[in-house]
Design brief:
- Strands 1-2-7-8-12-13 form a 6-stranded antiparallel beta sheet. A 3-stranded mixed beta sheet has the order 9-10-11. It has a two-stranded antiparallel sheet with strand order 3-4.
- The chain has helices at 4-12, 41-52, 57-70, 79-89, 95-99, 111-123, 132-142, 150-154, 182-195, 202-223, 234-237, 240-249, 353-367, 372-377, 398-406, and strands spanning 164-168, 171-175, 268-274, 280-286, 296-297, 302-303, 334-338, 341-349, 381-383, 390-393, 411-414, 423-429, 435-439.
- The N and C termini lie far apart (49 Å).
- The radius of gyration is 22 Å and the shape is globular.
- It is built from 15 helices and 13 strands.
- Helix 3 (57-70) packs antiparallel against helix 6.
- It has 450 residues and is of the alpha+beta class.
Length: 450
């Protein structure tokens, strides 16, 4: 059973290092087997295909199989993160054997991963949840202190959830409910909607956006977790009177003193798609913190995530680890409806930055009237939840930077168009028919149509 006592006992036995813990978790190891929870991505793929797909998994997976078996050349953009991962994860089970030879500019082949994908194509999700792949995952995890067993994998079920809804400038924004941070984005948008029309000056608007985001992030630490364990209904956080109260507390000229939050770094990929039938897909998945836990199931090529790193070990923590509990995570693909019809599909990687980027992209689209490509390319700011400082991209307009500083925000500069500001992508349904796509220049992505 996954409990604080079980984690501490495993640490005493030499499994997991509390020094890797995220701040505020009470020493929950962020790397190794202990923060790995039951992986749900594979079940999600098959469920989506069964519900909405027109082709089989076997057909769709062939390009990925070929890429794994034939190999590819990692770009120079990966060089820095890969070096950092090698220093941090080199001692984790089977990481070196799997990724140790990976380097920017050299050919990298993953035959084990190709075999695993082909096994899933033949046997379906059962290969993961009770079959050979799941067996290898449980073996490596249990050998390194995890309490996960085969029964946990077999018990996994896909859950279809009702999205949260925020209203912003005539757009109904659909966000995922807890245990994601979708309510964080919805809260910030609701506060900005309550504040009314955009004030004159980009710096004034940026200040209100920062304040709305910081207020929403303070909720995340206090309230968000697996909804079965939450002490407050997520809908109560989005109550109109509550949002207006937060809006009324914001000073347009002075930065507020908002509570800080527990960091949740990134390690995520986002994509969106639309077809000629009008079906829109907003998809995000993540192994967290780059290469996740660092643990690889031997013979599978499958690197395991570490989303459980956000669990706490103290009993009064709303996100304390418990059997069958899902950790708070950052993944929030989003959709926008106008008069009940789809108008926008969007999202981003970026950990704590995800709801902040939702707010900024929608602000550029709906308040400033930019097109969808410009909206995802504009310079950004990201609030650091650990200390409340506002990290600003180096190309953010000087007037905005000075306006934030004048209002009392502590600023730190980060490189323009770097990973720290996320990788946002969006597709907009055009009024006359067709689509417009925007792909973030910070990423190696593209807006493609055929």
């Amino acid at each position: 059973a996954a409990t604080p006592a079980a984690v501490r006992a495993a640490v005493e036995d030499g499994h997991g290092d509390p020094a890797t813990a995220l701040p505020g978790t009470g020493g929950m190891p962020a790397l190794g087997a202990l923060p790995v929870t039951v992986p749900g991505a594979v079940a999600g793929w098959f469920h989506l295909l069964e519900r909405w797909g027109t082709r089989s998994f076997e057909q769709l997976v062939q390009p990925a199989v070929a890429l794994a078996r034939d190999g590819f050349v990692p770009s120079e953009l990966l060089a820095g993160p890969l070096d950092a991962a090698r220093r941090k994860l080199g001692g984790q089970p089977y990481w070196d054997e799997t990724y140790g030879r990976m380097a920017a500019g050299t050919h990298f082949v993953q035959r084990d991963l190709a075999d695993s994908l082909e096994l899933l194509a033949r046997e379906g999700p059962g290969a993961m949840y009770g079959g050979a792949l799941g067996e290898r995952i449980v073996e490596v995890l249990s050998a390194h202190g995890s309490t996960m067993r085969r029964a946990d994998l077999r018990a996994h079920e896909v859950e279809e959830v009702t999205p949260l809804r925020a209203h912003y400038r005539g757009l109904e924004v659909l966000e995922l409910p807890p245990p994601t941070q979708g309510v964080t984005a919805a809260t910030a948008l609701g506060v900005l909607e309550a504040l009314g029309p955009v004030p004159a000056g980009d710096d004034a608007f940026a200040h209100l956006q920062v304040e709305a985001v910081r207020a929403a992030l303070s909720d995340r630490r206090e309230h968000l977790a697996d909804p079965r364990w939450m002490r407050i209904d997520p809908a109560a956080l989005l109550d109109g009177d509550r949002l207006r109260g937060i809006a009324d507390s914001i000073d347009p000229d002075v930065a507020g003193d908002w509570p800080l939050d527990r960091p949740a770094p990134g390690g995520t990929a986002y994509l969106c798609a639309a077809d000629d039938d009008g079906l829109l897909v907003s998809l995000i998945q993540s192994n967290f913190m780059g290469f996740g836990s660092g643990v690889v199931a031997p013979g599978t090529g499958i690197g395991l995530h570490n989303r459980g790193a956000h669990f706490g070990l103290e009993p009064d923590d709303v996100d304390v680890i418990a059997p069958g509990k899902r950790p708070l995570h950052t993944l929030i693909p989003a959709l926008g409806l106008r008069d009940g019809a789809p108008e926008l599909v969007f999202g981003t990687m970026g950990g704590d930055g995800q709801p902040q980027i939702h707010v900024q992209v929608l602000g550029h689209l709906l308040d400033r009237g930019l097109d969808v490509q410009a909206a995802v390319a504009e310079p950004r700011w990201i609030v650091d939840v650990a200390d409340g400082a506002v990290q600003v991209e180096a190309d953010l307009p000087p007037a905005v930077v000075e306006g934030l500083r004048r209002r009392g925000h502590v600023l730190r500069e980060m490189p323009a168009r770097g990973h720290g500001a996320g990788h946002a992508h969006a597709i907009q349904v055009l009024p006359g028919g067709g689509y417009a796509g925007g792909s973030d220049p910070r990423a190696e992505g593209a807006a493609l149509g055929h």
